[in-house]
Amino acid sequence: MNERDMKEKAQILDDKGMRRAMVRIAHEIIERNKGVENVALIGVRRRGVPLAQRLAQYINEIEGTSVPVGILDITLYRDDLTTLANQPQVHQTEVSFSVTGKKIVLVDDVLYTGRTVRAALDAIMDLGRPELVQLAVLIDRGHREIPIRADYVGKNVPTSRKEVISVRLKEIDQEERVVILEINE
Ligand SMILES: O=P(O)(O)OC[C@H]1O[C@H](OP(=O)(O)OP(=O)(O)O)[C@H](O)[C@@H]1O
Ligand SMILES: O=c1cc[nH]c(=O)[nH]1
């Protein structure tokens, strides 16, 4: 099953709601880390990357400091959007800075089972020894299968496993909104 076999059930965030949530997370990152010295962002492709770039832009607007942004390309081999097949696989890392000693904020659009984040943590640890790693997600939909939690959450959305959260970003989807999809029966 893919998103074509699903229909929209509800809109969770519009463009303004997404912006407010991301600006708030930018403030929280600055507050929690007492500034952004040694802070670096790493976005999980695909939709975590524009979100990380937006956070970097908001942080720059608030603090006047540019923080580096790296990319991890992780694919979940799913045969169905509502179930997980094999483990997520890390394909490519585009991290041009040393992670050693950095406060890394990992950024993704949706946190679900936590398996993608676990793979991302492994990939980051392979690159060096960060001082700490924090996690920022636009949507936490619950249903964790491993003990992972987010430090910064745009919105907590209770879901059933049959539903799918679809984050639509203008850079990728030519629209800005977050919707819940359900199976078209
Ligand atoms: O917590 P998990 O169960 O691992 O699920 C969360 C992951 O699933 C989504 O990726 P998806 O494969 O849908 O790709 P996308 O980023 O292109 O939307 C989302 O972007 C997260 O990376
Ligand atoms: O519902 C979900 C689950 C994982 N990833 C998504 O993008 N949506």
Question: How would you explain this protein's 3D organization?
Answer:
The chain has 185 residues and is α/β, with parallel strands linked by helices. It has a single domain (3-183), classed as Rossmann fold (3-Layer(aba) Sandwich). The chain has helices spanning 15-32, 48-63, 115-127, 170-173; strands at 6-13, 39-45, 69-75, 89-94, 103-111, 132-140, 152-156, 164-168, 177-183. Strands 4-3-2-5-6-7 form a 6-stranded mixed sheet, with helices on both faces. A 3-stranded antiparallel sheet has the order 1-9-8. α2 (48-63) links the parallel β2 (39-45) and β3. α1 (15-32) crosses α2. The radius of gyration is 16 Å and the shape is globular. The mean pLDDT is 92. Bound molecules: 1-O-pyrophosphono-5-O-phosphono-alpha-D-ribofuranose and uracil. Uracil binds at residues 110, 112, 141, 164-165. GO terms for molecular function: RNA binding; uracil phosphoribosyltransferase activity. It is an enzyme of class 2 (transferase). It comes from Desulforamulus ferrireducens.
Helix content: 25-40%
**Uncertain regions spanning at least 5 consecutive residues:** none
Small molecules bound in the structure, each named once: 1-O-pyrophosphono-5-O-phosphono-alpha-D-ribofuranose, uracil
CATH topology: Rossmann fold
* Largest sheet geometry: 6 strands, mixed
Note the run of SSEs as H and E: EHEHEEEHEEEHE
Enzyme class: transferase
Protein name: Bifunctional protein PyrR
EC number: 2.4.2.9
InterPro entries: PRTase-like, PRTase_dom, PyrR, PyrR_bifunctional
